[in-house]
Amino acid sequence: MSITVEPVKPQIGGIVHVSPDHLLDEETIETVRSELEKRGVLVFPQINVSDELQLAFTDKLGDRVNFTRQVPGSDAETADVYKITLDRKLNSEPDYVLGTFFWHIDGITIDQPLPKATVLSARKLSASGGATEFANLYAAWEKLPEEEKREIEDLTVVHCVEAAVRPVHGHPSEERRARYKAMAAVMEQPLVWTHEDGRKSLLLGTHADGIVGMPGPHGRALLARLQQWAAQPDFVYTHKWKEGDLVIWNNQGVMHRVVPYTDEGRVMHRTTIAGKEKPGHKADEANVERIYQIA
């Protein structure tokens, strides 16, 4: 075999050993597809891909999607490659990047099928911070007590960009809020997603702003507890980047966040694989209003 996968932890993570010359081989692609479902996150240590090879790898795994064209840094040099950086020359509005310091799922506030997977390559690292943490939301669901599963299985959650960046600005200006609303939709997503293959996962992240049918504080308290549960060490893999690393993760069953950094020289290149399943829909305005009520 030209590819091997070394498990990292029982619940999450795999290290892929393959030559760049074999990255696009059918054996590699089929192995990645299979292991991504089992391991959630796959790391290709210091494989040093170009944008062209990263895009070709992305395209081999599925249809390419770009949901960040309105965000500074998207298509900076290569079409469909989003350059993640705090460099003010490339990113005049860092809110979107700073929001990644908090747990999230890519594309969950876009009214389209949820992206299947994210591919990220390290081009330049920060002097400190910058590791990426991944939490397995399949495992988080599977390990919940049965009584709690029954209590939450049919709940619906409101997700929005404003909630995702609220920790960045606290109380954003009306002008900022208008920009956030223009970037994405307010979505209702199932708290427990039953995928087409029958597997179930939680859908969580800082963008989760309340639970339909619950007063705001009660819903947010439940979401906070579940996020803490999902982020316990057994379900989390922390990747400490080296330049040239390539990481792909199952965006439909893994939430992630970056350890904060301040270095404007840090640069990561992201590409995205489209999904076919759309678990949620645009939120009902009445439901959104209710989650901001106290009781």
UniProtKB/TrEMBL annotation:
Originating organism: Novosphingobium malaysiense
Lineage: Bacteria, Pseudomonadati, Pseudomonadota, Alphaproteobacteria, Sphingomonadales
InterPro entries attached to this UniProt entry: TauD-like_sf (IPR042098), TauD/TfdA-like (IPR003819), TfdA_dioxygenase (IPR051178)
Family: Belongs to the TfdA dioxygenase family.
Name of protein: Taurine catabolism dioxygenase TauD
PANTHER family, alphabetized: (3R)-3-[(CARBOXYMETHYL)AMINO]FATTY ACID OXYGENASE_DECARBOXYLASE (PTHR43779:SF3), DIOXYGENASE RV0097-RELATED (PTHR43779)
Gene Ontology MF annotations: 2-oxoglutarate-dependent dioxygenase activity; metal ion binding
Superkingdom of origin organism: Bacteria
Domain TauD/TfdA-like: 5-272
Keywords: Dioxygenase, Iron, Metal-binding, Oxidoreductase
Pfam families associated with the record: TauD
UniProt keyword Metal-binding, yes or no: yes
